[in-house]
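Predict the 3D structure for this chain.
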Amino acid sequence: MNKKKVYMGKISYINASPVYYGLDHGLLPPWLKMVPDVPSALNRKIKTGQIQVSPISAAFYAMNHRDLLLLPDLSISCHGRVLSVILASNYPIDDLEGKKVMFSRESASAASFLKMIFNQRKVSPVYEVGSVNNFQRISNSVDAVLVIGDAALTHPWDQVFKYSIDLGQLWYEMTQLPFVFAVWVVRRSFAKKDPACVKEIHNWLLESKRQGYQHIDKVIEAGKNKLHLDQSVIKEYFDLLYCDLDDQKVKAMEVFFDSLLDQGILNEKPDITFFKP
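Done. Predicted structure below.
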């Protein structure tokens, strides 16, 4: 029996590589179609129904929790430093009042998180959204820039800005908790219509992740080749990343969402609801 095609998002940065390793190496069934893109584009595509399952920004889940369900034991998280979510700045955070801060178009959780930090510290920068590809030009036009993903790893932000603030580390210092940047979700309507299919996709993802950690040396090698960075940098990066979603990370999400609610970034308290077949 031919299954109807299902479209699944895939983060185009290397941070999700462990989760997709098995699917990239023969596990992918013919009816499951991968859609690679940056997090903000995957956020849009799951909202409009172009894709049914995807990793998305944790903050975007909170904003759309009524339409989405979390898939258990999948996330992109850190416990302290993360290396790939940084605020490169010419000033300490508390001195950015009235200064220009640029966000990449690709971020949602990190942008919400940074706005929350500014709100808590009663600092009001002037926000701009733009491309962060040309790091030298950016350093001449803004006072600080939030960079995420591969661009944060590959450009020497600490050479063109005075400060390089790791947001994973900053969150840990504030809360003593991990930070969850991305989660895997399914559209509620799709899960209701075909729970058996969602269960199968979830099982594929967990098996794919298991194979990724079993072959982490190959994941590191592929990351090194893609970004043309030292193997030691990529190894350190994957050592700092977590792709599970345990109770402590769920608690960290609740704390993050409560903070977003307090700051008026969310207009209601989101339910953290998992897909249960």
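The first strand starts at residue 6 and ends at 11.
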